């Protein structure tokens, strides 16, 4: 069949979300409009990433961001594109970006009810060598039209109404959850549309892969060290696990959701809160992980229960297959 070789029912991300939202009588299409602006940002970043070498987008921008990191040209460009797309959607009131010290309060004439927290370009260290990078976003909704404040975004991750990421890899894939399951869409470059290719993604209950920066091992706490030791030298006769670590959270989490296993950025003696940031890295990925049937744990509690006190707070994170995270939780519980 021609229809087998070529997809003929083109379920675009816009159609998919419109269908989903039409189940809510109060929905006025605002979420779909917001998402369309996020999608536009992702398409722009995707095209910039693909021609980074040609368009002189490789290398440093010359500034240090609030995280103490040297910004790459693509960090700065992606940040600008997302801010402009989000503000011009007319559906946002407050934005938090990894690259900006302060939250952005949207001017009154352009305000809507959504708060968006985002990492415009994740995996910056992988840009210049052409390895997969991504964009991460989380969305909260304010209940009334009060003057937006930081309190609107300093909310536990379980209050998010949606979260997702876009991976700029061998193909461009957008993975989204609005709180009922997880769906993946692949950009068809000739159509310029994200098409549903991964409906209702479920993470395997148990995995054969672990993912962590083992270069930090000398500073790990007991349970992290014990878990990784068990991955390599299992006590119960099960086969040892494979190590995969890209160093782009989006790509490492994407593989984890599809293949199963664990992704960790644990605490260590030098960074007691780990490295990844709560609002725009830990929360969106934990939201997706739980919606795909996995778990996300900080070493102390369910990650989505964390209450951030500052917009750039960090937290240790263990996320992945349900059974594998149970094992990590048991090691922390045994430590007391
Ligand atoms: P970003 O590029 O947005 O600053 O995020 C980098 C993060 C994350 O993508 C990745 O998982 C982690 O840093 C890798 O850190 P290490 O190089 O310390 O392993
Ligand atoms: Mn960074
Ligand atoms: Mn990041
Ligand atoms: Mn980033």
Automatic annotation (TrEMBL):
Residues 11-199 form the Fructose-1-6-bisphosphatase class I N-terminal domain. Keywords: Carbohydrate metabolism, Hydrolase. It comes from the Eukaryota. Residues 203-332 form the Fructose-1-6-bisphosphatase class 1 C-terminal domain. Signal peptide: none annotated. It catalyses: beta-D-fructose 1,6-bisphosphate + H2O = beta-D-fructose 6-phosphate + phosphate. Its EC number is 3.1.3.11. InterPro entries: FBPase_C_dom, FBPase_class-1, FBPase_N, FBPtase. It is an enzyme of class 3 (hydrolase). The keyword Metal-binding does not apply. Belongs to the FBPase class 1 family. NCBIfam families: PRK09293.1-1. This is fructose-bisphosphatase. It comes from Gossypium arboreum (Tree cotton).
């Amino acid at each position: 069949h021609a229809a087998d070789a070529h997809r003929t029912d083109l379920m675009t991300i816009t159609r998919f979300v419109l269908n989903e939202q039409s189940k809510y009588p109060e929905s006025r299409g605002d979420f779909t409009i917001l998402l369309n602006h996020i999608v536009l940002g992702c398409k722009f970043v995707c095209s910039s990433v693909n021609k980074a070498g040609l368009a002189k987008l490789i290398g440093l921008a010359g500034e240090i961001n609030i995280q103490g990191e040297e910004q790459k040209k693509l960090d700065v460009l992606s940040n600008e594109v997302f801010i402009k797309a989000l503000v011009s959607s007319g559906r946002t009131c407050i934005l938090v970006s990894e690259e900006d010290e302060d939250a952005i309060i949207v001017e009154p004439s352009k305000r809507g009810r959504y708060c968006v927290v985002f990492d415009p370009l994740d995996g910056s260290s992988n840009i210049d060598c052409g390895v997969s990078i991504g964009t991460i976003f989380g969305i909260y909704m304010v209940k009334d039209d009060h003057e937006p404040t930081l309190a609107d975004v300093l909310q536990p991750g379980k209050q998010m109404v949606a979260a997702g990421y876009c991976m700029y890899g061998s193909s461009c894939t957008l993975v989204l959850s609005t709180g009922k399951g997880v769906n993946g869409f692949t950009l068809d470059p000739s159509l310029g549309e994200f098409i549903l290719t991964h409906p209702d993604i479920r993470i395997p209950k148990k995995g054969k892969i672990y993912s962590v920066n083992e270069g930090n091992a000398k500073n790990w706490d007991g349970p992290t060290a014990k878990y990784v030791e068990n991955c390599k030298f299992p006590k119960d006769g099960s086969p040892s696990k494979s190590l995969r670590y890209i160093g782009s959270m989006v790509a490492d989490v994407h593989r984890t959701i599809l293949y199963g296993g664990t992704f960790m950025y644990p605490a260590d003696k030098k960074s007691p809160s780990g490295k990844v940031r709560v609002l725009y890295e830990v929360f969106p990925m934990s939201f997706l992980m739980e919606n795909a049937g996995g778990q996300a744990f900080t070493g102390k509690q369910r990650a989505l229960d964390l209450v951030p006190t500052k917009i750039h707070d960090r937290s240790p994170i263990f996320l992945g297959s349900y059974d594998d995270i149970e094992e990590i939780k048991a090691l922390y519980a045994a430590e007391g």
